[in-house]
Design a protein that fits this description.
It is built from 22 helices and 33 strands. With about 750 residues, the chain is an alpha/beta fold. It comes from Arabidopsis suecica (Swedish thale-cress).
């Protein structure tokens, strides 16, 4: 059936399932399709982390043309595009209001008031989402929303107070997070049935009390921390003042109470106990224990809730509803689930070795908590081969005491893995370098095989015994300073060494460690804090994999690498300063990854020379290497095109890679895009790989710019043996139909080439 024969209403319905920019792009199909998109009921304009030009112009041109009498939904997400101004957003909202918008969603990041001193009247709006983190003083009066039924309000830093609250009292469902605390008096939510309160702020519980007092018909209460909300100072939320009289919703309407995550702090406990004690018609109360908190003994806090009085005799208290929650929960909650579904007498009858194996799949604190189940379980955890102690971004008391008590009584003759992840705890607690040294010494005495340490203070935490540990096979240090490394370093079993975002006082410390690892095979070093490191040498005959990251150390003068057994090499060199590299003796290298963001041509040439034997190459560079380098064995090339000279680098690589079979063009994750590539200089003559070997061509994030189009058309035109070309258009790019048509109708040298668009 010809789709053009369908009635307009049905075609508009079909278009409504497509992203707005895709739907708009159909206007080029034919005269019949030119105006269909103008009747779309839902419009969405969204930017991405990687901004692309034209979003503001696109909205300015298209939104005023829209003809639908009512805009059902308008979503504006120009979050990361700085050239979109507050006056632009104001104009777009005014257009939406004139079209009787029913649902409006606005996400605007920049610290400028986008609704300054204006009155907006949304007589037909049913859904409002307002995220206002503006730190500047501003005023906004939003009113006349009689049909509003759902609101999401996140006013992180603003001073909107009761100006917003007073306008949304008609809602049935409210999600709210506010740093302002309680709003003004006189705002009652008589129709509110479901409340979602984010408790990441100090004043959250006082806000809860006020909302409970003003919501007489509340049926569902959800207390949680919104995704990506990190919360206030480590002291947490302030104590709530219990209402002088019990809120009416607790006496007559509240049926469901959910708390996730539940930390078990005195403040958390007080509000939970108060609700359980006074909610007369409560049917179900569910608590999900804090998944970050692996220290606070959960048995005690769960006991407190189980034994607290409940006004409702039919209230079901739940800590884990089914086994699907086990991965999200820790501590005794896991075993409440097990008890619910398994016969504990039968599982206790299993052999000790099997029970220890079962416990090894659980987090350490969970396994340790099983000691309270029965006398049989009291000592089983002590034989665990893997131990992991992790702090969280929300600090909890007792981690040091927990490790101090449990680690010394561990009985396993060999610790297979010990993880001390103290990135956040070091900022908020009294865990010091001496504590960590003591724990590492215990692990060394138990013949630890894999050791992972993360500690975010530049202190000496590594005992001298670690540097002569004969059992150690893997060592992973993150944010750890190499201070006072002993002159004698001998790690005869160490095969993997990862130094992530490390702090090196001088090159001597690093050299002493590397020279004491005779069988090292995998080395990864992130030179994050290395201001005093001026030069270093890596000469390791056994090394098979090497990853080096230089962020911006201006003091680095040179480095030398001599690794005859190397098979994989990753070099990320963003160093702004002039420096020298000598790379040699890599006859077995088969794969390389280069990202030389700011380095000079000399660095790139020195790196490229030894790797011409690779079969697989990933590269991102601002500069193009010199002539004379030939990649006769290269079969798979991944090129990042975020730099201006990427097109010239591609031409150079194609000319020197006569056996290339797969070409991938993309923009690497977290790479910022320059202001477009320079014009494509077509290689002449046509590279051998296009004439004889290239079979697969992929382009991810294709925008259809003239430079990109010229490259894609050239490859399609000359790749005689191409089997498949796949083009992944950029999600935030503007109407792509026309630019894809250009490729679809361009000439192809290969008659069997399949052109695929995503």
């Amino acid at each position: 059936m010809d789709i053009n024969g369908l009635p307009d209403d049905l075609l508009v319905k079909i278009l409504s399932f497509l992203p707005t920019k895709v739907a708009v792009s159909t206007c080029v199909l034919s005269k019949r399709w030119e105006f269909l998109w103008l009747w779309l009921p839902n419009l969405e304009f969204e930017s991405h982390w990687d901004p692309r030009p034209g979003l503001g112009d696109f909205i300015n041109k298209k939104l005023p043309l829209h003809r639908a009498p009512v805009i059902e939904t308008l979503r504006l997400h120009p979050t990361w595009i700085p050239h979109i101004k507050p006056e632009d957003i104001k104009r777009w909202i005014e257009i939406a209001v004139s079209r009787h918008v029913r649902e409006l969603e606005l996400d605007y990041y920049y610290q400028v008031a986008c609704l300054p001193a204006n009155h907006f009247y949304f007589s037909k709006m049913e859904n409002l989402k307002l995220v206002d983190w503006n730190k500047r003083e501003h005023y906004s009066l939003i009113k006349n929303m009689p049909k509003l039924r759902e609101a999401y309000v996140d006013v992180g830093y603003s001073n909107l107070k009761n100006l917003i609250i007073g306008s949304i009292t008609s809602v049935k469902r409210l999600t709210i997070c506010s740093s302002e605390g309680p709003y003004g008096d006189g705002c009652d939510f008589k129709d509110l049935e479901q409340l979602n309160l984010c408790v990441c702020r100090n004043n959250s519980l006082n806000l809860l009390v006020q909302l409970l007092k003003g919501s007489p018909n509340l049926r569902v209460l959800d207390i949680s921390v919104m995704k990506d909300h990190l919360g206030d100072e480590p002291n947490g939320i302030v104590c709530s003042n219990q209402p002088s009289s019990i809120p009416e919703c607790l006496l007559s309407s509240l049926q469901i109470f959910n708390c996730s995550p539940y930390f078990g702090t005195p403040q958390d406990r007080d509000i939970a106990v108060y609700i359980l004690k006074n909610a007369r018609h409560l049917k179900k109360a569910k608590f999900l224990a804090d998944t970050w908190d692996t220290v606070v003994p959960k048995l005690q806090m769960i006991k407190e809730l189980r034994l607290s009085p409940r006004a409702s005799s039919t209230c079901e208290l739940v800590f884990a509803e089914d086994l699907d929650h086990i991965e999200r929960l820790q501590g005794l909650d896991v075993f409440f689930c097990i008890k619910k579904y398994l016969d504990m007498d039968k599982i206790s009858g299993l052999h000790d070795d099997l029970l220890v194996n079962i416990l090894s799949f659980l987090p350490t604190e969970v396994a340790v908590s099983t000691c309270v189940l029965s006398k049989r379980w009291e000592f089983l955890w002590m034989w665990l081969p893997n131990l992991e102690f992790v702090s969280t971004i929300i600090p909890r008391p007792g981690l040091m005491e927990f490790i101090d008590r449990k680690l010394p009584i561990h009985r396993a003759p060999v610790i297979e893995r010990l993880c001390l992840h103290l990135i956040w705890q070091c900022w908020h607690s009294h865990i010091g370098p001496k504590d960590i040294k003591r724990w590492i010494e215990i692990a060394v005495s138990r013949y630890v095989r894999k050791l992972e340490i993360a500690y975010h203070l530049r202190k000496d935490i590594l005992p001298s015994s670690l540097f002569t540990c004969k059992s150690l096979v893997t060592l992973n240090l993150k944010w750890v300073a190499l201070i006072d490394v002993p002159s004698m370093v001998y790690l005869p079993s160490l095969k993997t060494l990862e130094l992530q975002t490390m702090s090196v006082v001088d090159e001597k410390s690093l050299q002493q460690i590397l020279s004491g690892c005779p069988v090292l095979q995998d080395l990864s070093v992130n030179f994050f804090y290395t201001d005093n490191l001026r030069e270093f040498t890596i000469t390791i005959p056994s090394l098979k994999s090497l990853s080096l990251f230089f962020p911006s150390n201006r003091n680095l003068n040179k480095y030398e690498i001599n690794t005859p057994s190397l098979k994989y090499w990753k070099l990320v060199d963003w160093n702004h300063g002039e420096h020298y590299s000598l790379i040699k003796n890599m006859p077995n290298l088969s794969e390389a990854y280069f990202d030389v963001g700011y380095s000079n041509l000399k660095i790139l040439n020195n790196a490229i020379g030894p790797v011409t034997s690779v079969k697989r190459l990933t590269i991102c560079s601002e500069v193009v290497y010199g002539d004379g380098f030939v990649f006769n064995h290269l079969e798979h090339l991944n090129l990042c095109v975020c730099k201006k000279n990427s097109s010239n680098l591609l031409g150079q690589l194609l000319k020197g890679s006569s056996n290339l079979r797969v070409l991938d063009i993309s923009i690497k994750k977290d790479h910022k895009v320059d202001n477009g590539m320079v014009s494509w200089n077509q290689p002449s003559p046509v590279p051998d790989c296009l004439l004889s070997s290239l079979q697969i061509f992929n382009w991810s994030g294709y925008l259809g710019s003239p430079e990109e189009r010229d490259i894609a058309v050239y490859i399609l035109k000359h790749a005689c043996h191409l089997k498949k070309a796949t083009i992944y258009s950029q999600p935030c790019s503007f109407p792509t139909l026309y630019m894809l048509k250009e490729l679809e109708f361009s000439s192809r040298a290969s008659t069997i080439c399949q052109l695929v668009f995503h």
